[in-house]
TrEMBL record:
It comes from the Bacteria. This is Uncharacterized protein.
Length: 190
């Protein structure tokens, strides 16, 4: 039986013609949205600006100056993964996790509250590194015990977010850069 380290890897997640990264990286910091509160079709309060720079999104590659892919450490536990950011100046060491509204973003590791993910094949079967013999695969992501990850428009923002969706989920290109990858803090792990 393989260890968690042997099932862990470093990779990039990409979309066909879009670049995946944090909204602040894709659109400039701060990436803000205007939140207006409605109830029963009526405006019920003061609009507020929210900084969504730390949330994941995607943008057409042609609109971006430096479309280098984001590097993620996929840390395996059983048949699911915690996603640690490795390539971002501000968010390196943070985890990709869900916020209270189901949108994905960079958050400090929070133990059991950190979102874990399943990798899914195109026929929606849970897969791990042992099911990925090549270095490039097309996969879907699904927050464990939740809905698939998809592309979402959000009221008050001109951005494409990533978060839980009722759809099948978007198909990512997963490019494995390193297999049998350890935590940065424990390079001698077996």
């Amino acid at each position: 039986m393989k260890t968690n380290r042997q099932q862990s890897f470093i990779a990039t997640l990409e979309l066909g013609t879009s670049h995946v990264n944090f909204l602040g990286q894709l659109h400039g910091t701060p990436a803000t949205r205007l939140d207006t509160h409605y109830s029963g079709g009526f405006f019920t309060g003061v609009s507020k600006r929210h900084n969504d720079s730390h949330l994941l999104g995607h943008r057409d590659r042609q609109e971006i100056v430096d479309p280098a892919p984001m590097t993620i450490y996929f840390r395996c536990t059983d048949d699911y993964y915690h996603l640690y950011i490795r390539s971002h100046v501000v968010y390196s060491g943070h985890c990709v996790s869900k916020d209270h509204a189901g949108f994905l973003g960079a958050f400090l590791p929070a133990g059991r509250d950190t979102t874990s993910f399943n990798l899914l094949s195109l026929d929606n079967q849970v897969i791990t590194l042992r099911d990925l013999p090549r270095d490039t695969h097309r996969v879907r992501l699904q927050a464990r015990n939740a809905r698939p990850v998809g592309s979402i428009l959000r009221r008050g923002a001109p951005y494409r977010y990533m978060g839980e969706t009722d759809e099948k989920g978007i198909v990512f290109t997963l490019r494995i850069l390193e297999r049998n990858a350890s935590f940065l803090s424990d390079p001698d792990e077996v």
